[in-house]
Amino acid sequence: VQLVESGGGLVQPGGSLRLSCAASGFTFGYYSMSWYRQAPGKERALVARISASAAVTDYADSVKGRFTISRDNAKNTVYLQMNALKPEDTAVYYCNVPWSNSVKYSWGPGTQVTVSS
Prior knowledge:
single chain, globular
């Protein structure tokens, strides 16, 4: 199983980024997918989740209305569109399969998002 995140970078407050997570080694279309983030000195936290069919999404309160999760099951890829970015969104962002109260697979390398002027 591989989860490879990309699309991070340095952006000014109010800017936008689109993250991608390419998955392989499992039947992607069978599972919900989630994005998580870990800021310096903090625990990793759930940001957004999308069901296997993309019919259902949910978001952490801190990103509602600004972030949008989507997926392309034909490409085994999940996306996170991030708009109106704030300095407090600075973190390493990861994707994974939510599983019980944890995740199903080992973490990928993540992608760094830095929001700063």
